[in-house]
Design goal:
Blueprint: H1 17-31, H2 44-53, H3 60-96, H4 114-135, H5 137-154, H6 166-172, H7 174-186, H8 194-219, H9 222-228, H10 237-262, H11 270-284, H12 301-317, H13 323-329
Length: about 350
């Protein structure tokens, strides 16, 4: 097990046992990053899509069971995410000391024992994965994969977060894994549509690349940026912008593939999705951008309103048929004499 680079609570200045215990408890809660749990809203699209494929029978007992599964599933994914955050705090401590704000975190500042932090890492993972597995094998596997990706991202010698571009790809893969968590909470069986999973992955890459771009600009000095995040050694502002364009294009391509195959009505949401993406990159260009700290994005009212509107629109379009959209976007092929023509595109597969 990694040593945490020699950081321990003993490095902090002396204090009374009561104050020390209180500080340690606060530190353990802090490194679990409970304020980041809102990111697990990315589970909910998986729930919505799964309900489209496997609608619930509307009766009190079924709804009660569904809500219990949803609550337990969300708690489980939050615990696994916190386990990954704890590991990130431990292993990033030597690098965080080069960041003006992150140097004050609990581990690099010596406010929490590294040994206790490792215990917290394992306990949170065990409870979270165990709770998920109690609901379904698929959910347990999805949560275990989420935890394993946290290890791949943080632990040497792989430590994918130190590799340019791979860092973004490997961290953003948590998005489709969260979608699978939502899918298996509903438990329709099988696997969610691959086109949608890839689109969700690329959307995550888009947001993560903008976060990297904002961090790079905020740190200003390239040598300081590399000391803070090793993956910055292989990028520049220009390269980061190019990658952002690639991720945005790929995300919309695969979302379009999902819409054409399963739900043509979703095409109506494309302009609003593009608007959300445009607002987000604008946020990334601001000095000391909120894109560096996604937990603070709720302070961006225009972005939040656009995200809520987009979410509501997509949810409605998953269940409401718009025959006019199908007539406009699904081609009518010429029919050969005495020959039946099979439609080239299967649409409206969702009930």
């Amino acid at each position: 097990m990694p040593s945490g680079m020699g950081l321990s609570f003993s490095d902090a200045h002396p204090m009374t046992e009561t104050v020390r215990s209180y500080s340690t408890i606060c530190g353990l809660v802090e490194i679990a990053r409970v304020d980041h749990w809102f990111k697990n809203v990315f589970v909910l699209p998986g729930v919505v899509v799964a309900l489209g494929f496997a609608p619930l029978h509307v009766d009190a007992a079924t709804i009660e069971v569904f809500l219990m599964r949803l609550i337990l599933g969300l708690v489980a994914v939050c615990l696994v995410a916190s386990s990954n955050y704890v590991l990130n705090e431990i292993l990033d401590a030597p690098f965080d000391r080069h960041h003006p704000e992150k140097s004050q975190r609990a581990v690099p500042s010596g406010r929490v024992s590294v040994r206790l932090a490792y215990v917290e890492w394992l306990v949170l993972a065990a409870i979270g994965i165990g709770a998920g597995a109690s609901l379904s094998l698929g959910l347990g596997v999805a949560l275990a994969a989420l935890w394993i990706m946290g290890c791949v991202y943080n632990i040497p010698p792989i430590r994918s977060k130190d590799v340019p571009y791979v860092d973004v790809l490997s961290e953003a893969v948590n998005n489709p894994l969260r979608m699978l968590v939502g899918w298996y909470i509903v438990n329709p069986g099988g696997l969610a549509p691959v086109s949608l999973l890839v689109s969700y992955w690329m959307v995550g890459c888009y947001f993560m690349a903008i976060k990297r771009f904002a961090e790079y600009r905020h740190l200003g000095d390239r040598s300081r940026a590399i000391a803070y995040r090793r993956s910055f050694a292989g990028v520049t502002e220009e390269r980061l912008l190019i990658s952002i364009v690639f991720y945005a294009s790929a995300a919309m391509l695969f979302f379009g593939a999902f819409a054409m195959r399963y739900r043509i009505e979703l095409i109506v949401s494309f302009p609003l999705i593009a608007f959300v993406m445009a607002i987000y990159i604008a946020v990334g260009f601001r000095p000391d951008s909120a894109a560096q700290r996604p937990e603070g994005l709720y302070r961006e009212p225009v972005l939040m309103m656009a995200v809520v509107a987009c979410t509501v629109l997509v949810a409605v379009l998953l269940f409401v048929d718009l025959p006019g959209v199908s007539r406009v976007f699904v081609p009518t092929l010429p029919r050969a004499p005495n020959a039946a023509v099979r439609p080239a595109i299967s649409h409206n597969v969702l009930p």
